[in-house]
Amino acid sequence: MSVIFPSSSTVQSFFYNTKEQRLYVKFKTGEKYWYDVPYDSYEAMKDAPSKGRFVWNHLRGRQQGYVVDNPGKKTPGGVGGSLVGYGKGTSVSPRERIKAIKKLRKEFRT
Asked: Model pTM?
């Protein structure tokens, strides 16, 4: 699994974990998300001319996803490495939350 650093005004980096079937996205604002999507979605994002527009049009609010870190905003659960699900069926156990945050910090080099 390799991290992609696209030429984008909004997306800093992204990668896909085939074992978990998750697309991880880090924005230039510092926000981090993961989306539970098939590999085809990752391939489509790689091929999209605008990575930010792809996230907005195909992932955000349309796919099951998680806010992993949202340091610049004072949203519930969105400060300092929290993990908040959005969309239907997005509950996350505390153990999975901690594991995911540690993993993302390592992989996103934060």
From this structure: 0.67
